[in-house]
From TrEMBL:
PROSITE patterns: SIS (PS51464). CDD domains: SIS_RpiR. Residues 33-211 form the SIS domain. It comes from Lentzea miocenica. This is SIS domain-containing protein. InterPro entries: RpiR-like_SIS, SIS_dom, SIS_dom_sf, SIS_GmhA/DiaA_subfam.
Amino acid sequence: MTTDTVTGSDYGNLVRTHLTRVEQQNAAALDDVAELVLAAVQADGTILTAGAGHSLAAVAETFYRAGGLACVRPIYHPELLPMHGAISSTSAERRSGLAGEVLREAGLAPHDVLFVFSTSGVNYYPVELAQEAANAGCPVVAVTSVASSAQAPRRAGVTLAEVATVVLDNLVPPGDSTYPEDAPVTAAISTVATAFLWNLLMVRLVDKAAETGVQLPLWRSANVEGGDAANADLLRHYQTRIPQLG
């Protein structure tokens, strides 16, 4: 067996172990979040999803995705995208006030749900998103790492987890890297763990909707026969409130 095969196997086992822990430790919270989202769907509300930096990968996972919720509105600002400027994106999420600007443009209602993805959960942008939404009476789901927040500088004074309605913990270690296990320098796990949490939520939603007779607005892939036709009604219904669908 080659060295590469051994290290690949070790890393695969590390990821599988991590995801098992994530699933087990978030079981009760996922049920609570599924109830919040199901209530929002029943009220014809919107699920808003937000993040900054690499947490925007999680936002992309929630939006216009085959099998995903059609009522998701992604919340972001060009300054927060690393591809528009890596250093400036870091500065933007540490700046107070940007969250308020972004949410005012998006609009919030008590029957909506805001998801804030931030593994560190300490910068102004994610924390102020949660605070603004809470002040508007909108439930906030934090998808974060409690362990990472505990060791990161509290730039906003409090952590995202401390101001959220429900916390989903991706259990990402401080620094995000996971390999080699004894002194990690690579293989960030936050994107994998967060996407896994989101899809665990989707599975619960489908099951709960089936039990209660709720029709979930789910996208079909645009690259399968009949996909465009199946999505047409959803586009007509949500396009006026979700401009990113245009």
